[in-house]
Amino acid sequence: MHFSALTSLKAFEGIAPADWAFAAIAMLLSYGILTGVLRLVLGRFGALSRRLRSPAAGMLAEVLGATRHFVLFFAALLIGLKILDLGARWDTAIVHGWTVLFCLQLALWVNRAVSVWSTRRMQHRESAPDNPVIVTMTAWTARVLAWAVLLLVMLANFGVNITAFVASLGIGGVAVALAVQNVLSDLFASLAIGLDKPFEVGDFVVFSDVSGTIERIGLKTTRIRSLSGEEIVCGNTELLKNTLHNYKRMSERRIVFTFSVTYHTVPDKLAKVPAMVRQAVEASGKTRFDRAHFKQFGASSLDFEVVYFVLSPDYNLYMDLQQDINLALMRAFLAEDIRFAIPASVQYFAQAPEPPEVASSAKPKAAA
User: Same structural domain for residues 182 and 95?
Assistant: First the structure.
């Protein structure tokens, strides 16, 4: 049975069993050498990157780590087949195989390089963190272009007319673009967000009835964590159509508040109120006083208006300072016997006149 198998093997392409065995040994040796060289290179580059702390050497080591063992196996197989005299048809197939392997491995290296680059650029640095939308779109475009170019190269190597193929892809691309125009609209909106940077991850924004912190800016949607805790997913196109308030970029917060005192307050005490307000605002700290005025005569009170600035965009800090100012004003007014006004209204009730017949009947009759 073994002799018949060897005879049929010899009959295949006219190659002797010894030559097949030699080719198999060459393939195994080639695979061992390739994997050994790969481990050696990866180890050397890894040690070099740790010693020099070089980002370039570390990135190169990570890119070489994308070398796949199945690619090395098929490369060793092609080396073994090349030793054999299989004829022109097999030689052409081996050349095509080398092209496919090289293009596939090159695409894997490019894909890993783009992944490493995007990961490093997405890491927030204190000086100038990169916009995640631009990084994501650049990485996505680089991957698509790399795989598309390598696919076209492989097709051209197999004799496919890529000119007609590219033309057909262009027509199909137009049809697909019309079908997914809403998706493309959000995609270009995300590009506009990345270039114009109206907000970034971590900014607190308010638009329409939505208020919350930006958590993620994607290619199609932006995710916002609202004050009540739920996640709000908003399309990029719809988001850009709204007037958006970005509170994260405030350098300071302008505060306007009013209060009222009673009409029983004498003018001399009213004149002291602005100074009291100024002292309360400046004593709270992290504020800049602007003005305090007796604004108007209200319906049932004397109204004051106060303007000051909180030297921080933090909302919680503003509320703490406003509370301190309110308490300070209450203490100062209590010391000066100035009373806050309570909304009040005076109502007059008029009694309707009695009818003449009722009034005449109510009069006492004269004595006879």
Answer: no
pLDDT tens for residues 264-296? 999 999 999 999 999 999 998 899 999 999 999
**Residues 312/255, Cβ–Cβ less than 8 Å:** no
The owner of tokens 């995609």 is 187
In 3D space, the residue among 259, 323, 250 whose CA is nearest the CA of residue 285 turns out to be 323
How much is the pLDDT for 32? 84
Same domain, 26 and 138: yes
Give CA 91 to chain center in angstroms.
Answer: 52
The pLDDT tens digits for 347-366 are 666 666 666 665 566 556 55
Does 45 reside within a domain?
A: yes
Distance, in Å, from the CA atom of 287 to the CA atom of 222, rounded to the nearest integer, reads 35
CATH number for the domain including 297? 3.30.70.100
CATH of the domain at 228: 2.30.30.60
Burial of 193 (0-12, 13-18, 19+ CB in 10 A): buried
Average pLDDT value over all residues in the chain: 78
Give CA–CA dist 176/270, Å, rounded.
Answer: 73
Query: Among residues 72, 70, 74, which one has the least CA distance to residue 41?
Result: 72
pLDDT at 8 over 70: no
Any residues with CB less than 8 A from the CB of 4 and at least 6 apart, and which?
A: none
Q: Which two tokens stand for residue 120?
A: 């490093």
Predicted pLDDT at 142 = 80
Q: At what angle do helices 132-157 and 181-196 cross, to 10 degrees?
A: 130
pLDDT band at 10 (very low <50, low <70, confident <90, very high): very low
Q: Which of 13, 8, 10 is nearest to 21 (CA)?
A: 10
> pTM to 2 decimals?
0.47
Query: How is residue 252 written in tokens?
Result: 């300071």
DSSP characters over 81-126:
HHHS---HHHHHHHHHHHHHHHHHHHHHHHHHHHHHHHHHHHSPPS
Q: How many domains does the chain have?
A: 3
Domain that holds residue 262: 253-336
Residue 9: predicted pLDDT: 44
Q: Say if residue 15's pLDDT is above 70.
A: no
